[in-house]
Write a structure and sequence with these properties.
heterodimer; A: 483 residues; alpha/beta; 10-stranded mixed β-sheet; 11 helices; 35% strand; globular; B: 248 residues; Rossmann fold; 10 strands; binds adenosine-5'-triphosphate; binds magnesium ion
């Protein structure tokens, strides 16, 4: 019997982390180290307008005075920020006129990842911006979107073509000195995506960015800015993978979202960065990300959905500032940790306007020796009359060496509000799986059923294809950890 | 159909089943009785392929197949069904969905087309009616928060859907109220035919009034110490187990 079982895991073995390859492309990489000259050099390299350089310098000055946060429930040797290269770009001679000029190796990389970029094969209903190391290499469906006035391009390009939009919004949701990693990102970010949806426009397709870290010992610092004007809607997807290296790589992104009156942004992430060696814990991505949305307009809405399955360490709290009256924020999260992974993730809901609503559904799954913490803050300001929040934070433990922690913080300065918090912990047990098997249902299907049952409320928020992929990913990752 | 030959089995190196031989033919009903801790559930778990329980020697042949070489999933697909004494709760997994997965696993094995949700719903409604189960059990999560008796009914519902060749019912009667016992027993009787067989593990002779056994075996300290017909169960009821275990 035990032979049978190991053959199932053998079968899945080579699927362990199928994105762990590297691509051989010529790239231009800055020498390691960080100082003001590096910041200036990045800005110069990108031929940025002056306001941008000033933004970076201000952030860098702030960063130098700051300390790495010590409050998250994660442990790692301190990072030597001088031992990281802050710029790595695939070498290219001039600005690319068309996709034909993208290095074919890179095109193949994205195809391997299931994201074909070339005109014939590109995904019909998803516009993709592909970011390779720190630089955007291709954006699909741009023209089609432009017909409706939707701007979707690398942020480096937006700085050239729409500097006034960037100047108006960049740093308004996440100020340069917001936190240690955000300050670092603001100083050195090299690329990312920019989306602008004009008033009265429903984006005709999903918009997505696909991040890939390729070069060893480079940090990836992308910057995403999405603005959704009055009465508009966009659904945005983000996917991430990285090759397998023994050393840790730093990923410190900043994402800012802004919604005007009656606008809605739905932001979904399936994160599958390399998590380090399952046995030894060596290598893997440090994912220290600041994501925040501002519901600036009345009746506006921002909804974050995340499925976090990778990274050695995750430090991430997609948040909503509910400024407009009647605005609402949602956070749906599945965070899976296994092996030696550590995740400290959650959300912040800041209620400022009247009748603002927020809901938080967090599902943490921890297996092996991993540690999984939910950290959530609900803050209700004194003018937020009739604000409401509902939070539900469930944990599932797989095996008995893993741990789950919940840290809810609730602050209310208004007595008319309603705040509800529920939490539960459950276990996926060998007895449950045996029960399925004794009815002729395979172990894989059993795990999938239990996990998808547990994550139901989150998965139903994801676009269809994403939900299917997310579910497979979780099942695959847990296959070896149960029993 | 089932041939158990000198089976020794246990858990964590402790021998619990100490040499059991038992032969069951198609169409037969065998009752297994015996004091608490005598190894009845252990025998049932060994039959169903529970990974924690290990057979150290002996053989189990089911329809010409060596059962001990098959895992739980394969045994189930081959037609062995276990009605658990303590069915496990699985929050988040819908009961009807679970039943359909189990049903379709058989279809896949037989290389037949899977049943669609609507047809399955019809099949399920029929079986639930037969067992006097209310519709709401379709919507509930698998055994989650079910009462003791409801869990047992749900086991029989699974048996009714899967139509196994050999069913091992471990104390299915315990926890059922008087009416439920009658209804469930009638249901089980309806499922019986000349091609399937039943092992009933029970403490109470009352169940055997409803489902008439062809043989009654008494298990004590991991061995079958006495076998007989229905009269043996009656005798046990009036005299207790000392009578057989001491006589050995
Ligand atoms: N997983 C286990 N670990 C340790 N001991 C076990 C385990 N399973 C069974 N046993 C022991 O084996 C013996 C037989 O248990 P079993 O459950 O088979 O008895 P039973 O005849 O079904 O009893 P009951 O009538 O109370 O249901 C008991 O002493 C029990 O404690
Ligand atoms: Mg028992």
């Amino acid at each position: 019997m035990s032979d049978e079982k190991s053959s199932v895991s053998d079968l899945l073995e080579d699927n362990q982390y199928k994105y762990g390859f590297t691509t051989d492309v010529e790239s231009e990489t800055f020498a390691k180290g960080l100082n003001e000259d590096v910041v200036r050099a990045i800005s110069k390299k990108k031929n940025e307008p002056e306001f941008m350089l000033n933004f970076r310098l201000k952030a860098f000055a702030k960063w130098k005075t700051m300390k790495e946060p010590a409050w998250p429930n994660v442990h790692y040797p301190s990072i030597d920020f001088q031992n990281i290269s802050y710029y790595s770009a695939p070498k290219k001679k001039k600005v690319l006129e068309s996709l034909d000029e993208v290095d074919p190796e890179i095109m193949r990389t994205f195809e391997k990842l299931g994201i074909p970029l070339d005109e014939q094969k590109k995904l019909a209903n998803v516009a993709v911006d592909a970011v390779f190391d720190s630089v955007s290499v291709a954006t699909t469906h741009k023209k089609k979107l432009m017909e409706q006035g939707i701007i979707f391009c690398p942020i480096s390009e937006a700085l050239q073509d729409y500097p006034e939009l960037i100047e108006e919004y960049l740093g308004t949701v996440v100020p340069v000195g917001d936190n240690y990693y955000a300050a670092l990102n603001s100083a050195v970010f090299t690329d990312g995506s920019f989306v602008y949806i004009p008033p009265d426009t429903i984006s005709p397709m999903e918009i997505s960015t696909y991040f890939r870290i390729n070069t060893e010992e480079t940090g990836q610092f992308e910057r995403t800015l999405i603005i959704c004007a009055e009465n508009s809607y966009v659904s945005y997807l983000e996917g991430c993978t990285a090759p397998q290296f023994d050393t840790n790589q730093l990923h410190a992104a900043v994402v800012e979202l802004v919604t005007m009156d009656n606008a809605e942004i739905k932001y979904s992430t399936v994160q599958n960065w390399y998590a380090g060696d399952k046995e030894t814990g060596k290598g893997g991505i440090y994912n220290f990300v600041t994501k925040r949305g501002k519901c600036a307009g009345v009746n506006s809405k921002i909804s974050w959905t995340q499925v976090e399955t990778g990274s050695a360490i995750t430090w991430k709290y997609p948040s909503c500032i509910l400024q407009g009256d009647n605005s609402s924020g949602e956070f749906y999260s599945v965070a899976l940790t296994n092996g030696h992974m550590q995740a400290d993730t959650g959300t912040k809901m800041i209620h400022i306007g009247k009748n603002t609503r927020s809901s938080i559904i967090s599902k943490g799954i921890s297996a092996d020796q991993s540690s999984n913490s939910y950290r959530g803050q609900v803050k209700i300001g004194k003018n937020a009359t009739n604000a409401r929040n509902y939070s539900q934070c469930d944990s599932m433990l797989v095996g008995d060496k893993s741990s789950a922690h919940t840290f809810p913080y609730i602050e209310t300065a208004n007595s008319s509000v309603q705040v509800e918090h529920e939490a539960a912990t459950s276990k996926i047990s060998e007895e449950q799986l045996f029960y399925f098997e004794s009815r002729g249902i395979s172990r894989e299907n059993a795990i999938e059923a239990v996990i998808s049952g547990f994550c139901k409320d989150v998965f139903k928020q994801l676009p269809m294809e994403f939900a299917v992929e997310a579910q497979k990913l979780l099942t695959l990752k847990l296959e070896d950890s149960v029993g | 159909m089932l041939e158990i030959k000198d089976l020794h089995a246990g858990v964590d190196g402790n021998e619990i089943v100490k040499g059991i031989s038992l032969s069951i033919n198609k169409g037969e009903v065998h009752a297994i009785m015996g004091p608490n801790g005598s190894g009845k559930s252990t025998l049932a778990k060994i039959l169903s392929g529970h990974p924690a329980y290990e057979a150290t020697s002996g053989e189990i042949i089911f329809d010409d197949q060596n059962l001990l070489e098959m895992d739980a999933e394969e045994r189930s697909l081959a037609g062995v069904f276990m009605g658990f004494q303590y069915p496990v709760e699985v929050p988040g997994v819908n009961n009807a969905e679970f039943l359909r997965m189990a049903y379709n696993a058989r279809k896949v094995k037989a290389e037949e087309e899977e049943i669609d949700p609507l047809d399955f719903d019809e099949l399920l409604s029929g079986k639930m009616k037969m067992l006097g189960m209310e519709k709401k059990y379709k919507e509930r999560n698998l055994n989650d928060g079910f009462s003791g008796g409801e869990k047992k009914k749900n086991e029989i519902l699974q048996m009714a859907i899967l139509e196994p060749k050999l069913s091992v019912l471990d104390e299915t009667d315990s926890g059922l109220d008087i009416d439920a016992l009658r209804i469930v027993s009638e249901g089980v009787n309806k499922l019986r035919n000349e091609n399937n067989a039943l092992i009933l593990i029970t403490h109470y002779q009352r169940l055997l009034d409803y489902i008439k056994p062809d043989f009654v075996h008494v298990l004590s300290e991991g061995k079958i110490v006495k076998s007989g017909d229905k009269a043996l169960a009656l005798e046990l009821e009036s005299q207790g187990y000392d009578w057989v275990t001491k006589a050995d």
